[in-house]
Amino acid sequence: MLSEYQRHWGVEQWTAYLKAQDMPIMPRSRYLLQAVVATQAETISPRDLVGIVTGDPFLALRLLIRAELRHSRTLGHDITTPLASILQTGLDDLTHIINHSPLCDDSLPGLADAEFRSATASFLGRRWAACRADLSPDEVALAALLADIGEVMLWHFAPEIPMKVAEEIHSGRAQRTIQAQQQAAGFSFKSLSLSLADAWSLPPLLTQLIRGADTVRANIARIATDTARHLQSDMDNPAIPSDILSLHAFLPGASFEALLEPLPISDEYREAVLKALE
Question: What pTM value is reported for the model?
């Protein structure tokens, strides 16, 4: 339950509060680790654990923060992928994080939806970045996974706020998500994500990609996040053709078919989108 004081907090206050909390992980991350250890304890490698990390925005962020704390700047490069985080942190430390972190309540519909949307955005970001022969699609994927971390954190620590946002949309008082966020919270969740990224001193490259502008890769991450949100609200969302058209502007060498291929939409709607684009 929010206090009366918290109801008037802005981005700065929520950033300070959320940064001080003990970040949870998704329960399934612990189950998946136990399954991996049970079946390949003697041969487990960092790459075997990447899938667990990239499927959980809480865990990916917690691991990245830990890796950055241990990271020596003399290495000359930042840690910007889940695999690099695992290599920097080490298998023992990752196992400790997964086994001893608090677990979030994945039965809360809003939290589950936000987490699934982040994972979908990450998947799309990786696939689309690969369409331009990106040197590191995993960087784009990680940025897309963390782009909505502000909202994901609120769903766990202050669910009343995103619930109020949902009410603004469902009531018709807001037509767009960002409008609903401003009306209900007084700030956009993207601004909270960026503020948290700064507070946690995430690598500048990831912060730029999360911001979603300025570069082709950042725009790919942004469109992946937008598309994941559209898909979650309606698998036949009429915004999909616009998403693909915007994406094609940054990936002119990729066909519409290739850009549509990763989307989990029906064959009928895929054909309808292609016809609309052509």
Answer: 0.93
Taking the C-alpha atoms of residue 21 and residue 19, their distance in angstroms, rounded to an integer, is: 6
Place of tokens 């889940």: 82
267 and 160 co-located in one domain = yes
Q: Which domain holds residue 84?
A: 25-100
Q: Is residue 190 located within the same domain as residue 60?
A: no
Residue 23 phi, psi (nearest 5): -65, 135
Predicted confidence (pLDDT) at residue 127 exceeds the cutoff of 70:
yes
pLDDT of residue 74: 45
Tokens coding 153? 């954190």
The tokens for 175 are 């037509």
Residue 6 lies in a domain: no
- pLDDT of 122 over the 70 cut: yes
Number of residues that this document lists for the chain = 278
Contacts of 74 (CB under 8 A, 6+ apart): none
Q: Which two tokens stand for residue 192?
A: 């909270």
Do residues 44 and 144 both lie within one domain?
Answer: no
Residue 277 and residue 256 in contact, taking contact as beta carbons nearer than 8 Å: yes
Distance in angstroms (rounded) separating the CA atoms of residues 11 and 163: 17
Q: Are 127 and 121 within 8 A, CB to CB? A: no
Q: Is the pLDDT of residue 261 over 80?
A: yes
Bridge-partner residues for 103, per DSSP?
Answer: 25
Task: List pLDDT tens digits, range 167-216.
Answer: 999 999 998 899 999 999 999 999 999 999 999 999 999 999 999 888 99
Whether 196 contacts 205, CB under 8 Å: no
**Number of domains forming the structure of the chain:** 2
Reference 128, options 12, 221, 228; nearest CA is 221
Q: Residue 102 gets which letter from DSSP?
A: P
